[in-house]
Amino acid sequence: MITNNPIYNDCYFSDGNGFEESKSVFVYTNKVHEAESLTVGELGFGTGLNLLATLSCFRGAEAAYYSVEKHPLPKAKIDGMISGYLQDFPEIYSPFLDNYGKLFCDIKRGFNSAVWQFGKTKVFFNLYFGDVLDFLSELDTKMDCWYLDGHSPEKNPDMWSKEVCRLLYDKSKTGTTLATYTAAGLVKQNLRAAGFFVKRMKGFGVKRHKLWGIR
To answer: What are the angstrom distances between the C-alpha of 194 and each of 3, 181, 187?
Structure first.
């Protein structure tokens, strides 16, 4: 299955393993499943699949999740795109849909924050509605890890610019890691120029490579 964003003519996720791909690329590469506490930064909230993949593996009591989305999707659209992946996780999917639906109905430009409970895990959720540069400039917290899940550099170059990568570095601390499905040369170049150590790793499924980085 391919689910496209018509604005960028690019898919949110592809093939029949979108949920497993999210876990492989973002959760396991950043070793989120080994963390006891967690602060995640994400570029590109999309359908929320990365948040749900994180919750399916995270065993800690509290997590903070900061994400940015310029074109947020309504609850019904998200449900239609990802419900098939979450049939085995009703304890996280149902609360997610309910909470996201309420937040979306009152969404405003800038940070939209709420505290969500998923079983024993409390999530301090922060969705920034707007531009990625504004999000990173206004962010006042340093991340434990980054999920770089904007659309491809060819389709959405603003998400991968030198300035974005510099701000990512500024909002990281020593030991902060990052992961992304793209291994494009421009992305590696800009992340390295910002100060990250970056290496290419084996990708998921038909994708040959992914990137991992660390400050």
So the answer is: 32, 19, 11
**What Å distances lie between residue 92 and 2, 48, 84, 142, CA to CA?**
24, 12, 14, 26
Q: Which two tokens stand for residue 67?
A: 């994400």
User: What is the 8-class DSSP label of residue 72?
Assistant: P
Crossing angle of helices 75-82/90-105, nearest 10°? 150
Domains of the chain: 17-214 (3.40.50.150)
List of residues 6+ apart from 187 with CB closer than 8 A: 148, 153, 160, 180, 211
**pLDDT tens digit sequence for 129-174:** 999 999 999 999 999 999 998 667 776 788 999 999 999 999 999 9
Helix, strand, or coil (residue 97): helix
Return all residues near 90 (Cβ < 8 A) that are at least 6 apart: none
Contact, 194 vs 177, CB < 8 A?
no
Local confidence band at 17 (pLDDT 50, 70, 90 cut-offs) = confident
Q: Is 50 helix (H, G, I), strand (E, B) or coil?
A: helix
What confidence tens digit (pLDDT) does each residue in 86-103 have?
999 999 999 999 999 999
Residue 137 sits at the vertex; the CA angle it makes with 174 and 193, to the nearest 5 degrees, is: 50
Q: What is the pTM of this model?
A: 0.93
Cα separation values, 179 from 81, 87, 129, 208, 214, Å: 23, 26, 22, 15, 9
What is the SS3 assignment for 167? helix
The answer to whether residues 27 and 57 touch, using CB atoms and an 8 Å cutoff, is yes
